[in-house]
Design goal:
Strand content: 25-35%
Structural class: alpha/beta
Largest sheet: 9 strands, mixed
Number of helices: 11
Order of helices and strands: HEHEHEHEHEHEHEHHEEEEEEEHHEEE
Shape: globular
Low-confidence stretches: 370-376, 378-387
Number of strands: 17
Strand order of the largest sheet: 14-13-12-11-7-10-9-8-15
């Protein structure tokens, strides 16, 4: 069904889930069920997973779903009646499944990272534009309540022009999958495409794109593997240089605590976040002498904003994300700004790995790009053109 006919149709969007692992089974599917009950604007009718034990679990929990052993069989049987597929497989399969779903006429919602290489991401965005179907990444951190609060404070210009950002993502372990199939797949490059930079880097990078309103020009990075039983990195320190500021991103799977800490520094104040706790500090000029920290005082506003960071399924953030995907489908926004952000995330990830391999040399992101997006960030969705 075309975007125009969908917009005028009272029926719910009809979808299928491809990949019934941790995020599909505990994150997306429960969120779809809650939305179906509350709003009735989406209906998941089918599911595919290559693991027989997972299909047995799905059959027991969701007897109304039609189940398939792989995405190809699902698309052959169901695509004519589907509006979209939601891809929750390991990243190694994202590009291939997304392309086949687009070819079958389905819009595509896809877990991050969108692909494991920039070349795949580049081709996939162009293919979505050609097939006139939406390709939309699951950038769910944008919808965490405390992150939405940061966006509101920036919109109100309460800290002035943003200059520097520090982001620290601390995890005591890598995110593990379901026990029935390759629990540690994120630590195996053949499935994940990389370690914590590939798995978690996108979350930090698309937030920075949003906060700075720009894409980075260069990247300097050091990645390291402390747990040598795996072939992917578990720690990374990445510096991104934007045209209007700088950011330092630390990612770790070997911390003693699970926590996120963000610090956004502007010309007139700062926003700091420690999980659910947000502090807004605003500089106020005083009539005193300009010594030490300057003739200023700080007005401080502290808030606690429940964001459920400890729940790795992030089910409560999914509803807002799906609303943005639905908006893109109804508007025919095939390659949205969010999709272009996913494309740039992969460019930054490749630049970070290249920098670390080169002894932490600064890498221009432009060196990774073989093609460019027609419109800069903040512009209307557009097709890809050769650079």
């Amino acid at each position: 069904m075309t975007p125009g006919s969908l917009a005028s149709s009272p029926r719910p969007l009809r979808g299928a889930l491809i990949g019934y692992g941790f995020i599909g089974g505990l994150g997306h599917l429960p969120a779809y069920r809650a939305r179906t009950a509350a709003r009735g604007d989406v209906e998941i009718v089918a599911l595919a997973d290559s693991c027989p034990a997972r299909l047995a679990d799905a059959a027991a929990r969701y007897p109304d779903l039609r189940l398939y052993p792989d995405h190809r069989t699902l698309l052959d049987a169901e695509a004519a009646g589907l509006d979209f597929v939601d891809i929750c497989t390991p990243p190694c399969d994202h590009a291939r499944i997304a392309r086949e779903a687009l070819d079958a006429g389905c819009h595509v919602l896809c877990e991050k990272p969108l692909t494991t290489s920039f070349a795949e991401a580049d081709e996939l965005l162009a293919h979505a534009a050609r097939r006139r179907r939406v390709l939309y990444p699951c950038h769910n951190y944008l919808h965490a309540p405390v992150v939405r609060a940061i966006r509101s404070l920036l919109d109100e210009s309460l800290i002035g022009r943003l200059r520097t950002v520090a982001m620290n993502t601390m995890r005591n372990t890598h995110a593990k999958g379901v026990t029935e199939w390759n629990t540690h797949w994120r630590r195996h490059e053949a499935y994940s495409g990389g370690g914590i930079v590939m798995d978690h880097g996108s979350h930090s990078f698309y937030l920075l794109f949003d906060w700075f309103g720009a894409y980075p020009e260069s990247v300097t990075a050091k990645v390291n593997t402390l747990d040598g039983q795996f072939d992917t990195e578990d720690n990374a320190n990445i510096v991104l240089t934007f045209p209007n500021g700088m950011a330092n991103v630390q990612l770790s799977w070997t911390c003693g605590v699970r926590k996120v800490q963000y610090a956004l520094h502007g010309e007139a104040g700062a926003i700091t976040v420690d999980d659910d706790n947000l502090e807004l500090s605003q500089m106020r000029r005083t009539a005193g002498p300009d010594i030490a920290q300057g003739a200023v005082r700080w007005d401080v506003d502290r808030r606690s904003i429940a964001s459920h960071w400890g729940d790795a399924s992030h089910t409560t953030w999914f509803d807002a994300l799906f609303s943005r995907f639905k908006d893109a489908v109804l508007a025919g926004d095939f390659v949205s700004e969010t999709a272009r952000d996913a494309h740039q995330c992969i460019a930054v990830i490749e630049a970070a790995y290249a920098s670390s391999r080169a002894g932490c040399r600064e890498i221009a992101v432009a060196d990774v790009l073989t093609r460019k997006v027609e419109h800069a960030r903040g512009g209307r969705a557009g097709s890809l053109v050769t650079a």
